[in-house]
Amino acid sequence: MSKISQRRALLMAAIIPAMLVAGCAAGGSGTQAMKGAAASPTDMPTDMPTDDMMSPEETDTASPTGTDTASPTDTAGGADQPRSAVQGFFDALKSGNVDQVVGAFADDAVVAVDGEATAKGTQAIRTLFQGQLDEMKQATHTIEEDRTLGSEDAVVRATSKQGGDNLRELFLLSQDGGEWKISQFMNNQAG
């Protein structure tokens, strides 16, 4: 397993369960299941490397007032770049440009879209979205939260409405040649 794949696996193992548990513990409607914060390093298993991890307070780019603020881990491009990368993906969906959609993803990205087989890699992602672009042109998207996780990783949580479906969406992004790319994307029904 490559160093990048290991880092992504650790990131997924640390963030996804914490976000889901926090959301489920909040109770309420299905839209709450992905709300919550990533676990702090003290909540992490002791066998995980923590020398380059930061607490949610240090990595959260969303301020209480709803405006973005720079975090100490931001690269030269600023805190909004992961958010901008996801917004670029949403804009590509609305324009129906499959090349731009695929370009938003890392070459080895994994996409798990509700009701579809998991797509791994550029060609599988192209095939997945090519068949869905017409219905996605009318979708509305809202980015709910974005966090940088160190200098090379970020997580963005969003919601979308496609036809009568309300979806929760989670994006993991990584720096790829100085540019933020989506490395993992999953969505499911909000309830």
TrEMBL record:
Biased composition (Polar residues): 61-74
Signal peptide as annotated in the record: 1-27
Protein name, per record: Nuclear transport factor 2 family protein
Domain of life: Bacteria
Segments forming domain SnoaL-like: 86-159
Region annotated Disordered, chain positions: 31-83
PROSITE patterns from the UniProt entry: PROKAR_LIPOPROTEIN (PS51257)
Bias kind Low complexity: ranges: 40-53
Pfam family of the protein (one): SnoaL_2
UniProt entry keywords in alphabetical sequence: Signal
